[in-house]
Amino acid sequence: MNSPIFSKRAFEKFTREELDLYMDTFVEESSNVDIYDFKYRNNAVLNYNLEDKLSNIKAKTLVAISSDDIYYSPEFDAYPLKDKIENLEIYVFDAGDFVYNDDYLIFINLFLDFLEEFKK
Predict the structure, then answer these.
(1) Which of 3, 24, 76, 107 is the most exposed place for a label (fewest CB within 10 A)?
(2) How do residues 47-99 score in pLDDT, each as one tens digit?
(3) Whole-Å CA distances, 15 to 10, 26, 35
(4) How far apart, in Å, are the Cα atoms of 86 and each of 19, 36, 57, 63, 76?
(5) For residue 92, which of 112, 72, 117 has the smallest C-alpha distance?
C-alpha cells in the first residue's frame, strides 16, 4: 500500500483492522528504504526552488489535482501556479471517483481533450 493513493476521506472510512494492516504494511515496506536516500531526496526537494522559472513555461499546461489529497491541495499547490504559468488549466477532481471505483475514464477523457489541439 502506498499512502499517496488514499485521500483523507479514505482514511476516515478505514476500519481499525484496515488501518492496522495498512500501518503494518507501511512499516514493512519502509524497513527496506535507505533512510539516507530518503533524507537526501527530501533535502533536495526542500532546497530547490523553481518558482522564479515557472513564468518561462509557455506550453499549454494541465495540472490535475485531488480535492482531498493528504499531501497536496488545490489551494496551496495548484491555484498559486495560475499567476506563474501563462497557459495553465487546472482540473480538480474527487479521488473517490476513480480510487474506489477503479474508474480512470475521467482522466483518459481529460487527457484526450487536453491533447486534441496538438493533433492539428
Answers:
(1) 76
(2) 888 889 999 999 999 999 988 877 788 999 999 999 999 999 999 988 766 66
(3) 10, 16, 30
(4) 42, 38, 7, 13, 18
(5) 72
CA quadruple 94, 100, 4, 20: dihedral, nearest 10? 130
Please report, for residues 33, 45, 57, the alpha-carbon distance to residue 39 in angstroms, rounded to integers and kept in the order given: 11, 10, 30
Query: Model pTM?
Result: 0.63
The span from the CA of 24 to the CA of 116, in Å, is: 44
The half-sphere exposure of 106 on its side-chain side, counting CA atoms within 13 A, is 15
Q: Which three cell numbers stand for residue 5?
A: 493513493
What's the 3-state SS for 53-91?
HHHHCCCCEEEEEECCECCCCHHHHHHHHHHCCCCEEEE
CA dist., res. 119 & res. 92, Å (int): 25
How far is it, in rounded angstroms, from Cα 43 to Cα 66? 25
